[in-house]
Each structure stands twice: as structure tokens, then as C-alpha cells.
Design brief:
Elements (H helix, E strand, L loop, with lengths): L1 H42 L8 H34 L4 E5 L8 E3 L5 E5 L1
Antiparallel strand pairs: 1-3, 2-3
Helix pairs in contact: 1-2
């Protein structure tokens, strides 16, 4: 039973980390877009009103992603509580050694290790 729960928790952790990374990447891209919109308008010597509607929508997209990041962080916290309730006190993440037989690669460079 413990191994089934541990394996399930590892799958959930991998998905969670992937979602967190995707949201952060999207935030960075939309921030880059917003910066490019502002500098491109200036470099083209256009009035501030040109493209303002597009800039506002892009800024709104950034705000929505920031909210999504808040929600995924809350999801992370609640899953931490859930793992304790199902008997998995510690599911550590970090840079565990590659030779560690208990380590699983989660996403690029991150490994998971079940410790109980």
C-alpha cells in the first residue's frame, strides 16, 4: 500500500512541477511581449494610443497568469498537506544524486525522492 501511495505521489509531483514551470515560462513570455510592445511603439515613433488596446489585453493576460501562479502555489501547499494525511510525511525534492535508486527524474534537472 505504501509503495502505491508513494508512486501516486511521485506522479502528482511530476505533473505539479511541470505545471509550475509552464506557468512561469508563460509569465516570462508575456512579460517579454509587454516590454516589446512598449519599446517597439517607441522605436517606431508612434503615438502612445497606437496599439494601446493590444497592450491592455496583453497586460491582462499577464495578470491572469500571475493569478494562475498564485493558484498553482496554493495547489502545491494543499498537496503537501494531503501527502501527510495519506502517510507520506516527507517527499523531498532537490538535486539528489543520479546514482540514488530511490530518485526519479521529475522534469529537467529536478529529481524526486521519497523519504519515509
Amino acid at each position: 500500500m505504501f509503495h502505491k501511495r508513494k508512486n501516486a505521489a511521485m506522479k502528482v509531483a511530476q505533473s505539479l512541477f511541470a505545471a509550475e514551470e509552464a506557468i512561469d515560462a508563460a509569465l516570462a513570455r508575456v512579460a517579454e511581449l509587454n516590454a516589446t510592445l512598449a519599446t517597439a511603439r517607441s522605436e517606431a515613433d508612434l503615438s502612445a494610443v497606437v496599439g494601446q488596446d493590444a497592450f491592455e489585453v496583453a497586460a491582462s493576460t499577464f495578470a491572469a497568469l500571475a493569478r494562475a501562479r498564485t493558484d498553482i502555489v496554493e495547489t502545491h501547499k494543499r498537496l503537501d498537506q494531503t501527502k501527510v494525511r495519506i502517510g507520506l510525511r516527507t517527499l523531498a525534492t532537490g538535486d539528489q544524486g543520479k546514482d540514488d535508486p530511490m530518485a526519479l527524474t521529475a522534469t529537467e534537472g529536478r529529481t524526486l525522492r521519497a523519504v519515509a
